[in-house]
From TrEMBL:
Highest taxon of source: Bacteria
CDD domains assigned to the protein according to its UniProt record, in alphabetical order: PGRP
SUPFAM superfamilies, A to Z: N-acetylmuramoyl-L-alanine amidase-like
N-acetylmuramoyl-L-alanine amidase domain segment(s): 27-186
The protein, known as: N-acetylmuramoyl-L-alanine amidase
Organism: Streptomyces sanglieri
InterPro entries membership: Amidase/PGRP_sf, Amidase_domain
Length: 356
């Protein structure tokens, strides 16, 4: 819990974190303070805009709609990674949310498994008083990609605020985690985002990771694939996930219905969200990346375990690696129970940097 940053201090911490800031008009004094308090602030909320085009999106989040006056956030993070500051003070971005979520964010107390706070309640606490708000330019349809420059800027903005307030990454949540009737930011894995923010906070604000995008890097390619339908996983045999749904594959690593999600020479970072039905309580599904040359197995990477619980079996596994020329990467599963289970959901999202 903290007093909101002053406008000049915000600019200072954003620029120190490497954020490319665009100041829009009278943003320092544009707010909804006449409608209620702003502060103490307890965290930062990430949204998507359901819009296309940076200029028009900036106008919308600054001016709002007839039934929802602007500003609708503090800053809009564009596809190219620029952050357009449109307001400072109370803004119409968060609405009502679950008081339990606010308590968890204040205490930074929600557990590492699951890695998200309790899902929100739209009829609860006034979030506009308690959160910084960041709209991100995206259609929110699950197909519109999140370019590497934009994702990197989202991470940097959140890290800048956490660093300034001495918060951990658990002070950053998505709108869908605050309010049960929201889905944004669709296409961003919030536990993965918090992990990336946490990684930045381990380093000085000026840090540029060697495996992530910088202004000198080529733009990464976006991959978002999953399952069209659940399938059955037999016991006691490693099995590659065949991705039968493709929302985006600008890196051209995934053949229709195939198991490969990236091909070398390339480096990549992302995650896969998995859910299993029918896994007995206490039993385990192991998850690992495996390298191939064509259809020939070559190497395995470290194992992650997802454990059956009374509420189901689900988890998010990080995918980060570099693969060489001629190699490809798959995700493999090992059902260690003694019965058939269902792989009910597998959603993989990754950014891929092709190497020459």
């Amino acid at each position: 819990m903290a007093d909101p940053l002053k406008a000049d201090r915000l600019l200072q911490v954003l620029r120190a974190e490497g954020v490319r800031v665009v100041e829009v008009g009278d943003w320092r004094t544009r707010n909804r303070n006449h409608k209620g308090s702003w502060g103490p602030v307890n965290g930062s909320l990430v949204h998507h805009t359901v819009t296309r085009g940076t200029d028009s999106t900036v106008r919308i989040v600054r001016d709002g709609y007839p039934d929802l006056p602007g500003p609708l956030c503090h800053g809009m993070i564009a596809k190219n990674g620029q952050v357009h500051l449109v307001g400072w003070g109370r803004t119409n971005h968060a609405g009502g949310g679950d008081p339990r979520v606010l308590d968890q964010v204040i205490a930074e107390s929600y557990s590492s498994s699951p890695t998200s706070p309790t899902r929100g309640n739209a009829n609860g606490v006034d979030g506009n008083a308690h959160f910084y708000g960041w709209e991100c330019e995206n259609l929110g349809d699950g197909k519109d990609p999140w370019p590497g420059a934009q994702y990197d800027a989202i991470v940097r903005v959140q890290a800048a605020l956490c660093r300034a307030h001495k918060w951990s990454a658990k002070s950053v949540i998505g709108h869908r985690e605050w309010s049960a009737d929201k889905v944004d930011p669709r296409g961003i894995d919030m536990p993965r985002l918090r992990a990336d923010v946490a990684e930045r906070l381990k380093h000085p604000a000026s840090w540029n990771p060697g495996t992530g995008p910088t202004e000198e890097d080529d733009m990464p390619e976006y991959v978002n694939i999953g399952l069209a339908n659940p399938y059955t996983l037999k016991p006691n045999a490693w099995d590659s996930i065949e991705f039968t749904q493709e929302w985006a594959d600008t890196a051209a690593g995934h053949a229709a219905g195939g198991s490969v999600f990236v091909r070398g020479a390339a480096r990549f970072t992302g995650s896969i969200s998995l859910r299993f039905d029918g896994l007995p309580v206490g039993d385990v599904v192991q998850v690992r990346m495996s390298e191939y040359e064509g259809d020939e197995y070559k190497a395995d990477h470290p194992v992650h375990e997802i454990v059956g619980t009374p509420g189901g079996a689900f988890g998010v596994v990080a995918l980060t690696k570099r693969i060489g020329t001629g190699r490809s990467m798959r995700v493999r599963l090992l059902n260690q129970s003694e019965q058939l289970i269902a792989v009910s959901s597998a959603v993989l999202t990754a950014l891929v940097w092709k190497e020459s």
